[in-house]
Specification:
Heat Shock Protein 90; Beta-Lactamase; 6-stranded antiparallel β-sheet; alpha+beta; 12 helices
């Protein structure tokens, strides 16, 4: 194989240039690795390869020029000059592969390494505003969002972090922006309607204090706060209406209680008057007429106290009242147990049926039937007296009874023929 020294000048120059290029490339890779923070294995490898290339260049160049012949011992240079060209091509191939490998490693390292440019790009992509400044106010890092906010609020570029904070905290804002009151940290609403919340804190980096300013888009929270405020105002109005309604309910309840008392007094006085008429019509002596005095005493007690003067049950009271006017009360069924309100309405209906039996029918027996059907309580009243000549017209007592029953979701019907019948229906769970 041809020796290096046997090559023509053009070929030898080209080979030397290739070695020089390999040396420069290796040197460049080594310098690149110095900017990194990892171990300098690549730099050391590049330095060794560069040194080898330099030695080979020196050994090959010396015998070519007599003036350089003394750089290295002649036998040494003659040895390298006599080596085949393939040896040098192999060295170039191996050196080039090594340089490419080191370049690849350095590139892979740089791709995975967080650089200043990568930090700036990442900060710019954040939706929040971010700014770091030195203790002097000098901006160390600020993303696009914070720079845009600074220009919108102050009219200037972000150059002094401390001065920027002073403006957003207490200074005059530009562009129609408004600072929301009564907030711990500055909350600013822009003219566009967007709302930003600012925060300031001092952190430590490399033993030095660093001013950190953040801005968060709080538009959605601001909208929710406005809706909550409006909702609270509406609730306050509703509470006021409920208070007025409660006052109305109290008034209506009082009226109903007065109406119930009047109805009860009407029934009591009606029974008493009927009994008195019945006793007087029979021309009874004084001793026989004494029970009427007890009835009048009881009615007087009711007028004075608005309550029953004794502890007799409602049904017993109706039975006694019927007996006092010479009418026998015949009952089929039983009053609903534990349902005092329903019992009271049934007995009230019975009192009205008794009054009408005495006044208009001249009856001697009053029939009362109580039953339960499909979740409703039904009470029917009739008598053995004469049939009404015309349709029964509701007077004050029957009208008041109908009002009370219908108010509780019930119904009342009157039947004139073939016999007089009063029927009331009350749903389960209803009643005053």
């Amino acid at each position: 194989m041809t020796a290096f020294i046997a090559l023509n000048t053009f070929a030898r120059t080209g080979l030397l240039l290739l070695f020089l290029l390999l040396q420069l490339s290796s040197l460049g890779v080594g310098i690149m690795s110095l900017n990194g923070t990892r171990k300098k294995a690549i730099f050391h490898g590049a330095f060794a390869l560069t040194s080898l290339c330099f030695f080979m260049l020196t050994a090959l160049t010396a015998p070519l020029y007599e003036r350089n012949a003394g750089l290295l011992p002649k036998p040494f240079t003659a040895f390298f000059a006599g080596l085949p060209v393939g040896f040098y091509l192999l060295m170039l191939l191996l050196g080039g592969a090594a340089a490419l490998f080191m370049l690849h490693q350095e590139w892979a390292h740089r791709r995975g390494m967080i650089t200043r440019a990568a930090i700036k790009e990442s900060a710019d992509n954040l939706p929040a505003g971010l700014c770091f400044g030195a203790s002097s106010g000098l901006v160390l890092l600020a993303n696009r969002t914070m720079e845009g906010l600074c220009h919108s609020l102050t009219g200037f570029d972000l150059q002094d972090a401390a001065a920027f904070w002073d403006i957003i905290a207490t200074g005059e804002l530009k562009g129609g922006a408004k600072r929301l009151p009564d907030t711990e940290n500055p909350i600013i609403r822009l003219a566009s309607g967007r709302t930003w919340s600012f925060d300031r804190r001092v952190i430590e980096a490399d033993g030095q204090p660093v001013l950190q300013i953040t801005a968060t888009d709080s538009t959605d929270l601001d909208i929710l706060h406005l809706r909550l405020t409006e909702g609270n105002a509406e609730l306050a109005k509703m509470n006021a209406r409920l208070r007025r309604f409660s006052e109305t309910i109290v008034e209506v309840t009082a009226k109903e209680e007065r109406l119930a008392t009047k109805t009860r007094l009407h029934n009591e006085l009606g029974h008493t008057l009927l009994t008195t008429r019945h006793i007087l019509s029979k021309e009874m002596d004084e001793e026989q007429a004494l029970p009427i005095l007890d009835l009048w005493k009881r009615n007087i007690a009711v007028l004075r106290t608005g309550a029953e003067a004794n502890n007799v049950t409602l049904l017993e009271h109706l039975t006694e009242a019927a007996a006092d006017v010479g009418i026998t009360l015949k009952i089929k069924g039983a009053l609903p147990k534990g349902r005092q309100n329903i019992q009271r309405l049934i007995i009230t209906a019975g009192s009205e049926a008794l009054n009408n039996a005495v006044r208009h029918a001249a009856a001697t027996e009053l029939y009362m039937e109580v039953l339960e059907s499909k979740g409703s309580h039904i009470a029917m009243f009739s008598n053995n007296g004469k049939i009404p000549d015309t349709e029964v017209i509701e007077g004050g007592g029957l009208s008041a009874l109908r009002t009370r029953i219908e108010r509780q979701g019930g119904a009342m019907t009157l039947q004139s023929r073939p016999v007089f019948k009063l029927t009331i229906t009350l749903p389960e769970g209803k009643g005053e």
